[in-house]
Amino acid sequence: MGSVYDYVVNKPNPLLQLVYLLVVFGGYTLYVILAQWPYLTDNGLYHPHRYSVPLTMIMCFVSFYLCSTTNPGTITPRSVGVYQHVYAHDEVLFRSDNSCSTCTVPKPARSKHCAVCNRCVARFDHHCIWVNNCIGARNYRYFVWFLSQHVFFCFYACYMTGMALYQICVQDKLFEARFINRATGQVYPPSYLYVFQYLGYRSPWVWAMFLLAAVMAVVLLGFALYHYYLMLTNQTTNERAKRTSIIDHYRSEAKRQIKLATQRQQQHPQRPTQSKSKEGEGDDDDVVQLNPKEIQEAVDVLIADARENIYRKSLWHNVYEVWAPLHERPSFEDHLQKVTMSKQATNDSENENDKDKSGSTSSQSKSKKNASKSSSSATASPSSLASTYVSGGDRMSEKKGELRRRRHRL
Question: Catalytic residue numbers?
Answer without folding.
Answer: 128
